[in-house]
Amino acid sequence: MNSLSDIHQRLRAAGAGPAHERRVLRLWSHGLPQDSGPRAIESFLPKSLRDALPAVTSELDGLATLVSQHPGEDGSVRLLVRLADGQTCESVLLPRGGLCVSTQVGCAVGCRFCMTGREGLLRQIGSAEIVAQAALARTLRPVRKVVFMGMGEPAHNLAHVMDAIDFLGTVGNIGHKSLVFSTVGDERVFERLPRGPVKPALALSLHTTREDLRAELLPRAPRISPADLVEAGDHYARSTGYPLQVQWTLLDGVNDTAEEIEGIVRLLHGRYAVLNMIPYNTVDGLPYRRPAWEKAADLARQLHRRGVLTKLRRSAGQDVEGGCGQLRARGKVAVPV
Ligand code: SF4
Predict the structure, then answer these.
(1) Is residue 206, in this structure, part of any structural domain at all?
(2) Do 7 and 120 belong together in one domain?
(3) Are residues 111 and 213 in the same domain?
(4) What residues does the Radical SAM core domain cover (predicted)?
């Protein structure tokens, strides 16, 4: 039962009508017990569904369970989450009501600087398991924004991710521009996102304006030029009314050069976009280093002066464990629950 359609079928088989389904799923996705709410469950659900509900609820609760949590000084908390088959993935509670979820166990893109990319793709995370990460997070704190930036490339699990987005943007009560689809760039994304009933904001992991360097850093990302990616992202952003979020993991001496500054100005000036620069979290065993904060701040100032809206961010939870995939890779349990 790892997709939302499995859950719908299960509830219908137990006698649920559309209103019953909506109620059960709304409570679950908000992290609330099934006997909460103003209307007593006994007076609302048919008996066949009431009888089936304990087993269904226990399966829903088992879709994503908390293994450990790792609080950071910035208010974020990294969560190691166990899926029903025993695989694990990571979610991150972000400051101000955000949540970062995983869409795959492992990832096939193989970015050179990413721990998740090292193990390849192990399996897809189903739409219900994606929503279950939000349901689990909501048992810990309110969630008003969900970013699809954890383990995995959402474009490689597009149907499940879009089902989860449609669900979270309706039953899950998350504002559409507060759902952020993150991708390295893939034709299928630019075709599919504008067609959905819920249109998320788009984050594009660009990391460099040089095609040769991008092929080296993101070896299995689709070969689309940075200029074409920005063009497609800008087009989608204008159609939704929320700016394109261009993600740039700053790697010391690699993509923080004068040449890249020129490339960024060329690509992003005049675009409906914001550049998010995130200094890399150094990972043991990988050759990349985080640039000094002052150097990163200087780059951001230069870009601002040249008309590129730039935000320099500290990646959430960096004081906990570094980049995504490390909790899982190390099987580390800092705060058992
Ligand atoms: Fe996959 Fe994202 Fe890691 Fe790249 S950075 S390997 S796309 S999880």
Answers:
(1) yes
(2) no
(3) yes
(4) 93-319
Say whether both 130 and 14 belong to one domain: no
- Regarding whether 27 and 127 lie in a shared domain, the answer is no
The DSSP secondary structure of 165-226, one letter per residue, reads HHHHTTTT---GGGEEEEES--HHHHHHGGGSSS--EEEEE---S-HHHHHHHSTTS----H
In a mutational test of the pocket of ligand 1, which residue from 92, 103, 111, 205 has the highest number of ligand atoms less than 8 Å from its CB?
111
| Assigned domain for 71 exists | yes
Protein residue whose Cα sits closest to atom 7 of ligand 1: 153
Quote the domain boundaries for residue 2.
1-33+49-62
For residue 231, the domain's CATH number is 3.20.20.70
The C-alpha angle 5, 139, 174, rounded to 5 degrees, equals 55
Choosing from 91, 100, 105, 107 the residue with most ligand 1 atoms within 8 A of its CB, the one to mutate for a pocket test is 107
How many whole angstroms from 13 Cα to the centroid of ligand 1? 38
Report how far ligand 1's centroid is from the alpha carbon of 18 (Å).
38
Work out whether the CA dihedral 73, 137, 83, 161 comes out positive or negative: negative
| CA atoms of 106 and 208, how far apart (whole Å) | 23
At 333 the pLDDT is: 38
Instruction: Looking at the structure, tell me whether residues 306 and 237 fall in a common domain.
Output: yes
> What is the pairing mode between strands 145-148 and 98-100?
parallel
* Total domains present in the chain: 2
Going by alpha carbons, the residue nearest to atom 4 of ligand 1 is 111
What is the pairing mode between strands 145-148 and 179-183?
parallel
The H or E element spanning position 157 is none
Identify whether residues 17 and 162 lie together within a single domain: no
Residue 40 resides in a domain = no
Scored b (16 or more CB within 10 A) or e, 236-265 reads bbeebebbbbbbbbbbbebbbeeebbebbb
Question: Is 70 within 8 Å of 322 (Cβ atoms)?
Answer: no
Q: What is the pLDDT of residue 334?
A: 38
Ranges of the chain whose pLDDT falls below 50 = 318-322, 332-337
Question: Do both 53 and 84 map to the same domain?
Answer: no
Task: Flag whether 332 is in a domain.
Answer: no
- CA 111 / ligand 1 centre spacing (Å): 5
Cβ atoms of 74 and 98 within 8 Å: the answer is no
